[in-house]
Amino acid sequence: MCAGCFTHLLADARLRDEMATCPNCRIEISKMNSSRNLAVEKAVNELPAECQYCSKQFPRHLLDRHETDFCVERSTTCKYHRIGCPWRGPYHERVEHEETCVHPCKSGSDVMGALHVVDNKRQEEMELFDKIFDLLSFEKLSFNDLQLKPYRTDEFIHKLFYETSRFTAFGNQWVVKSRVNDNQRDPTQSCERSVTYQLILKTKISCPLNIHFLILKGPFGDMKVHPRIYHFEFGEDTNESPYYHMPLHDFGECNRLLAAKAINFRLIMFLVTK
C-alpha cells in the first residue's frame, strides 16, 4: 500500500471513529503496527511505469525525473507567459512557438494587464512580509507550542473535532478548537478535505483584546502550512473568534494530519495596545 493510500485510510477511520482495517484481508492496521517493507519498495521502484505524457515505460524511481526534466512531450508554457502569452503545449514545440510568439512585439499598454496580475501577486507577498515584521515590533507578543487532540461531539451522529489544552497568553487562558470540512455532516464522502480553526478566550475580561494570530508548524510539528495572519477583537460577549481556514499545502496534507494521533503546531499571538 502506498503512503498516500495508507494515510487516506487512517484519516477515514479517524473521521468514522473506527479502527482502520486493510481493504484486502481486513486486519486492523495503524501507524504503530505498520512499517515500510523496504525490500518490496525497492522491487516496486524497479518495475516499469508509463509516462503520463509520452506513454513510454520507465522504472518507477526514474519516472518523476523523466516527466519533470527530460520528456519531450511534457506540458510547458511559453517563456513570455509573464507578459500574457496563454500558450501551453508539449516541450518539443516550445522553441518553435517562441520564435513566432507575438507577445514580445506587443506594446507596453498591451501587456500591462498581464504585468498587473504579476504585480498584484508580488504585492500580496510583500504585504504579508511587511505585516509580520510590523507585528514583531509590537510590545506584547506570545507564542505557544500546542497539540490539537481529537474528540467527539455528544450528538446522535458523533462529529470529530480537535481541541488543545488550555494555555496562557497575555495573562489570560485560551484554547484552540478545530474541525474538518467546516463541520460537514460526513467528511468521508469528500476527497477534498480542509481544516478550520478558531481561537477561544476562556477568561472573563473587562476590556477588549485586539489580537492578531497565525499558525506555524513549530519545532515539534511537521505540517506543511502557508503562513496567514488573522485578526479578531475579543470582548465580554465575543470570546470566540470565527472559524478560519488553516492554509495547508494540499488535501493530502490534511489526510496526513488526520491520520496522526495529534496535530502539533506553534501559535503566535500579537496584542495590539491602544
Describe the structure.
The chain has helices spanning 3-16, 38-46, 60-70, 94-100, 108-136, 251-259, and strands at 48-50, 57-59, 75-77, 88-90, 140-152, 160-163, 167-169, 172-180, 195-201, 209-216, 230-234, 244-245, 263-272. It has 274 residues and is of the alpha+beta class. Strands 5, 6, 7, 8, 9, 10, 11, 12 and 13 form a nine-stranded antiparallel beta sheet that branches. α1 packs across α6. The longest helix is centred in the middle third of the chain and has 29 residues, at 108-136.
Amino-to-carboxy terminus distance: 56 Å
Into which percentage range does the β-strand content fall? 25-35%
- Major beta sheet summary: 9 strands, antiparallel
Any idea what the radius of gyration is? 24 Å
Helix content: 25-40%
Structure classification: alpha+beta
Instruction: Please write the string of helix (H) and strand (E) elements.
Output: HHEEHEEHHEEEEEEEEHE
* Global outline: flat
Mean of residue pLDDT values = 86
Query: Could you name the ranges where pLDDT drops below 50 across 5 or more consecutive residues?
Result: none
